[in-house]
Amino acid sequence: MIKICTDSCVDLSEEQISKFNISVLPLSVILGDEEYLDGVNIKPNQIFEYVNKNGTLPKTSARSVEDFKIFFNDLLKDDNEVIYTGISSKLSSTYQNAIKAKEEIGSNKLHIVDSKSLSTGIGLLVIYACKLVQMGATCEEIVKQLEYQANLNQTSFVVDKLDYLYKGGRCSAIARFGANLLKIKPRLELKDGKIENTGKYMGQFRVVVKKYIDDMLKVHSNIKKDICFITHTCSDKQFVEQIVEYVKSKNIFETVLSSTAGATITCHCGENTLGILYLLENN
């Protein structure tokens, strides 16, 4: 049997994880002196409460090599083959720890694929892999397709405020002040596994989101049309549903799903971040 696994940065719902029988290793989130497991005993609203109270960001942490060895060895039981893809190797030491665990385990039935992505960008690859399993593809075929598809992954977000990026050292105080004063909303995209600022919008968050959606759907003519995610850290669920319906009205995707970002992603972007994520076909 082929087992597909990932880390909690995947941001898929419990229903999706159960439906596709995905194994998830939760990443660590540290609030002061307390360590939590993403998706297990901490939720995004706890992140907001902590930051508002303390003025500092929680820390996120990759799982250790030993944690990965335990995780992988459990999946390798009964002569299973295992494929893991998690957060981009250029964003976290998680990937490197998974590679080290594979080397120490020494099994040729364990495969590690760099997603070059985060959040439901990983989720799209994981679901794709699960569907290939259902279609009867071999482990080698799935790994090859995942490595190929990782380069055709459109992952982007628009951020309401730069407060969390500033607290995390990812922008200057001047940039933060100017952006918040002028209501500038940066657009962040994953490029070759790294986060890059590729644009900005001016105005109220609720207004610029549709402009952002329009822009991102015009970037590529080779969109893979089976599934799209709207992933967010918004507390206003009605607004999110309006955006989902807006994307559906474009009649591009067969399925448009909303996903709430987990604690790991929330730690770095803050409240009112929203992204559209989808895969691309080969040109």
Strand content: 25-35%
Please state the overall shape, judged from the principal axes of the Cα atoms. globular
Helix content: 25-40%
Mean pLDDT rating? 90
Task: Note down, in words, how this protein is organized.
This protein is of the alpha/beta class. It has eleven helices and 13 strands. The strands form three sheets. A six-stranded mixed β-sheet has the order 10-9-8-13-11-12, with helices on both faces. Strand 1 (2-7), helix 1 (14-19) and strand 2 form a beta-alpha-beta unit. Helix 9 runs parallel beside helix 10 (237-248). 44% of the residues are buried.
Give the helices and strands, then pairings.
Elements: E1 2-7, H1 14-19, E2 23-25, E3 28-31, E4 34-37, H2 44-54, E5 59-61, H3 65-75, E6 81-86, H4 94-105, E7 110-114, H5 120-134, H6 139-149, E8 153-159, H7 163-167, H8 173-181, E9 184-191, E10 194-202, H9 205-218, E11 223-232, H10 237-248, E12 255-260, H11 263-269, E13 273-280
Parallel strand pairs: 1-2, 1-6, 6-7, 11-12
Antiparallel strand pairs: 3-4, 3-5, 8-9, 8-13, 9-10, 11-13
Write a compact overview of the structure shown.
By secondary structure, the chain is an alpha/beta fold. The protein contains eleven helices and 13 strands. A six-stranded mixed β-sheet has the order 10-9-8-13-11-12, sandwiched between helices. It has a four-stranded parallel β-sheet with strand order 2-1-6-7, sandwiched between helices.
